[in-house]
């Protein structure tokens, strides 16, 4: 019997790459998207290649009823879930001082509370079956705060803490929890990130310089299949680690080396790396 996995935010980027890769590995995949109509080409392509093995369902992680309805639909089709990958996310870029509060709320609603809604919907059945894998998409930005992405990093730091907490809560239940920490991955993420760099901003020069480096790095970053394979590694593990890094070689060293450095040294390295070591 095929193992059933739910992947949120599966119609693009890391989510889509993971959905396809797991379908190729023989999983029954349920991928979510906020709007099937808007992603119809992706849905049709998946249907043509994978048939019912990769099915898309509408789910908005920011809405309670949408989550409950979608999870109920998946349960009716699959009977149970062997794994859930919380991946749906969004990005905002700009300073703490100038970012509209509405955008900050929206960021956390998707990147943290969206995870919680899905988890609260799927954990009970996993716990009752005494089996299941939960994979949370964190980020190296949850280990090291990227300049001018304070809110995004804060959300990922929250996911890091959520991972630790869940592992303790679900210890002994048969439900395994792990987080994936992608570095820069070549997706459309930057294209959909909300930019807030006002022309009259006192931060404009440094903020724009940093964004230019981020965009440059995105173009030469690893493909999302790297993350998909790490997720598959977790799903195959009977006792997964808490955290897995999915990044280029240099970036993958950050979780190892940065804890050994002083805060000032880490900050200096980040400013140099992002081209903003000036006043």
Task: Give a verbal description of the structure.
- This protein has 279 residues and is α/β, with parallel strands linked by helices.
- The chain contains 12 helices and 9 strands.
- The chain has helices spanning 13-24, 40-50, 64-78, 101-111, 113-129, 150-169, 189-192, 204-219, 225-236, 249-252, 254-257, 263-273, and strands at residues 4-7, 28-33, 54-58, 83-86, 92-94, 132-137, 175-182, 194-196, 243-246.
- Strands 3-2-1-4-6-7-9 form a 7-stranded parallel beta sheet, sandwiched between helices. A two-stranded parallel ribbon has the order 5-8.
- Helix 1 packs across helix 9 (225-236).
- The longest helix is centred in the middle third of the chain and has 20 residues, at 150-169.
- It starts with a strand and ends in a 6-residue tail after the last helix.
- 38% of the residues are buried.
Radius of gyration: 19 Å
Pairing-aware structural class of the strands and helices? alpha/beta
Which outline best applies?
globular
Instruction: Count all strands and give the number.
Output: 9
Number of helices: 12
**H and E order:** EHEHEHEEHHEHEHEHHEHHH
Q: Strand share of the residues? A: 15-25%
Query: What is the makeup of the main sheet?
Result: 7 strands, parallel
Mean pLDDT: 96
End-to-end Cα distance, whole Å, is 60 Å
Oligomeric organization of the protein chains:
single chain
**Main sheet: strand order:** 3-2-1-4-6-7-9
Report the uncertain regions: none
> Which bin fits the share of residues in helices?
40-55%
């Amino acid at each position: 019997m095929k193992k059933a996995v739910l992947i949120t935010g599966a119609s693009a980027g890391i989510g889509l790459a993971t959905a396809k890769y797991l379908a190729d590995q023989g999983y029954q995949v349920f991928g979510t998207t906020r709007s099937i109509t808007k992603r119809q080409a992706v849905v049709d392509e998946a249907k043509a290649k994978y048939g019912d093995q990769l099915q898309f369902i509408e789910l908005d992680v920011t809405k309670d009823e949408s989550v409950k309805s979608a999870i109920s639909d998946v349960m009716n089709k699959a009977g149970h879930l062997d794994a859930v990958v919380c991946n749906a996310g969004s990005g905002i870029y700009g300073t703490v001082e100038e970012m509209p509060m509405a955008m900050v709320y929206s960021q956390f609603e998707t990147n943290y509370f969206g995870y919680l809604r899905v988890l609260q919907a799927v954990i009970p059945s996993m716990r009752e079956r005494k089996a299941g894998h939960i994979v949370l998409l964190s980020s190296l930005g949850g280990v090291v705060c990227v300049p001018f992405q304070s809110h995004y990093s804060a959300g990922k730091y929250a996911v890091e803490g959520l991972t630790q907490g869940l592992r303790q809560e679900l210890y002994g239940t048969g439900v395994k929890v792990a987080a994936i920490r992608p570095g820069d991955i070549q997706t459309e993420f930057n294209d959909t990130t909300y930019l807030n760099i006002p022309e009259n901003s006192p931060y404009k020069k440094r903020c724009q310089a940093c964004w230019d480096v981020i965009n440059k790095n995105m173009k030469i970053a690893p493909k999302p299949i790297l993350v998909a394979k790490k997720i598959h590694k977790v799903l195959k593990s009977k006792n997964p680690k808490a955290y897995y890094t999915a990044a280029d070689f240099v970036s993958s060293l950050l979780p190892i080396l940065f804890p050994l450095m002083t805060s000032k040294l880490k900050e200096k390295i980040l400013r140099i790396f992002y081209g903003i070591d000036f006043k």
